[in-house]
Amino acid sequence: MPDDLPLESKITRYIFEYAARDWASISSTDVVIVGAGPAGMTAARYLAEKGLRVVVFERRLSFGGGIGGGGMLLHKLLVHRSAEQILKDFKINYTPVEGDEELFVVDTAEFMAKLAAGAIEAGAKVVLGVHVDDVIIRTNPLRVTGVAVQWSAVIMAGLHVDPLFVYSKAVIDATGHDAEILSIVSRKVPGFNIVVPGEMSAYAEEGERLVVEKTGRVVPGLYVAGMAVGAYHQTPRMGPIFSSMLLSGKKVAEIVAKDLESV
Ligand code: 48F
Questions:
Q1: CB of residue 59 inside a 6 A radius of ligand 1
Q2: Would you write out the chain's pLDDT as a tens digit for each of its 263 residues?
Q3: pTM to 2 decimals?
């Protein structure tokens, strides 16, 4: 009986058992989000709030993506007022810039912590240290139906270890500047005809507008949000202003939820 076990045995046993329960339940889910940056966590919250089963895989051992670095390592970021409701939904404190009607300043530590807390409290499962290195496809008709996952430590060690799979109705590439999932699909699934040219040089205002405008479905089952949109649609970068990451995350959540109503 567990009560008779030494504490060391309990530690091993309970961690294995409860992690296994999680993996068994997420092996087939509604939405996989790749990347726990601002776009991914925003999408996770609004999708989970709609009652969908959401898993976020993040290859680092922390969430936040590009938030923590702030603007050139200064611990502040800007958010345009168009994303004010999202800041409020996540209970993120913000300071209106004196004499500027448009812009708010946020603290990086609070921003990343509350985005993650909001996603998790809404019911999304965030799993750290997991690298998504491929997708699952089905043909006739061609669509993406999940991802292949591997421990980041295995990838970093350069070991050849077969991955495990997570089946899902939708996959969101929220991997940031490199649009990693779209890049993999462009190489490995020629039938999709995806090209990832990479983002354009900075033009902050246009970059913010276009990322939100072009957020959405790429091919059946595969969606793009955040800076991955910039890499895929070659839109300009915008630097440390994060309104479009939040608005893009919310928009992709609405699009995916609507698409899944008919699946
Ligand atoms: O880079 P990241 O923050 O992407 P984002 O949500 O936001 C971009 C901004 O941070 C900033 C910007 C806005 O002005 O320019 O850069 O679009 O978060 C992406 C996350 O995805 C993880 C990565 O570690 C990061 O935390 N990631 C990337 N590739 C993979 C991955 C992968 N293959 N598997 C798992 N996680």
A1: yes
A2: 678 999 999 999 999 999 999 999 999 999 999 999 999 999 999 999 999 999 999 999 999 999 999 999 999 999 999 999 999 999 999 999 999 999 999 999 999 999 999 999 999 999 999 999 999 999 999 999 999 999 999 999 999 999 999 999 999 999 999 999 999 999 999 999 999 999 999 999 999 999 999 999 999 999 999 999 999 999 999 999 999 999 999 999 999 999 999 87
A3: 0.98
Write out the two tokens for 75.
């611990």
Cα 1 to ligand 1 centre (Å): 44
Q: What are phi and psi of 258, to 5 degrees?
A: -65, -45
DSSP 3-state assignment of 183?
helix
Q: Which of 42, 58, 238 to mutate to test the pocket of ligand 1 (most atoms within 8 A of CB)?
A: 58
Nearest-10 crossing angle of helices 243-261, 38-49: 40
Domains and CATH numbers, the chain: 31-260 (3.50.50.60)
Please indicate whether residue 60, judged by its CB atom, sits closer than 6 Å to ligand 1. yes
Helix (H, G, I), strand (E, B) or coil at 138: strand
